[in-house]
Design a protein that fits this description.
185 residues; alpha+beta; five-stranded antiparallel sheet; four-stranded antiparallel sheet; 13 strands; 39% strand; globular
């Protein structure tokens, strides 16, 4: 297909869909202090405690010369004790378009994922909202391929209290600022 103009033709170039994107979470949490019991009940994060303890253990032992076996990881995760009772919770993550200079354009949201609790809405109970997402597990979110991607349901988006981070992670570990509890399909 060509675009014709008088005496010469330009080849048709389809629009590009490999957007550069910037992940964005609100500056302040939607809910400042939600108990772990509420995460399990209202958000549907059934194994939240076990999954977070396992993740913390995995991150703390990521540089070990011998990788941890699944059973060893589970045993070590049982020794993780949370120095908090509540967590700050976010109900949405957005991905914004990024221009050629690397600046995010707040007006152009390419995608978003929601994770909201069940709640009473008048006389009825509104069910929790847990969006399904394709999650890059390859370590490189810029690679556009079905390999290295898993399908999961995002139940909770949260951050850890800053005072608890040095108590949970070794000083050499680079800790993300936001986390998500995902149930894999």
């Amino acid at each position: 297909m060509c675009w014709c103009r008088r005496d010469y033709a330009l080849p048709f170039v389809p629009p590009r869909y490999d957007f550069r994107r910037l992940q964005s979470v609100s500056k302040h949490p939607t809910a400042k202090a939600v108990s772990i019991d509420k995460l399990i009940e209202d958000y549907g994060a059934t194994y939240f405690h076990e999954a977070l303890a396992r993740y913390i253990t995995q991150l703390n032992h990521a540089n070990d010369p011998i990788p941890l076996h699944s059973q060893t990881l589970d045993v070590l995760a049982q020794d993780v004790h949370f120095p908090f009772r509540t967590l700050p919770i976010f109900h949405r993550v957005k991905w914004l378009s990024v221009d050629a200079r690397g600046h995010g354009d707040a007006t152009a949201t390419l995608d978003s994922v929601h994770a909201r609790p069940q709640c009473n809405s008048g006389s009825s109970l509104r069910p929790h909202r847990s969006d399904t997402a394709l999650v890059s597990i390859s370590g490189n979110p810029d690679v556009v391929s079905i390999e290295g991607v898993r399908v999961g349901q995002v139940r909770v988006i949260f951050s850890l209290p800053s005072k608890s981070v040095p108590l949970l992670f070794s000083p050499t570990v680079k800790v993300p600022t936001h986390f998500a509890y995902i149930e894999w399909f």
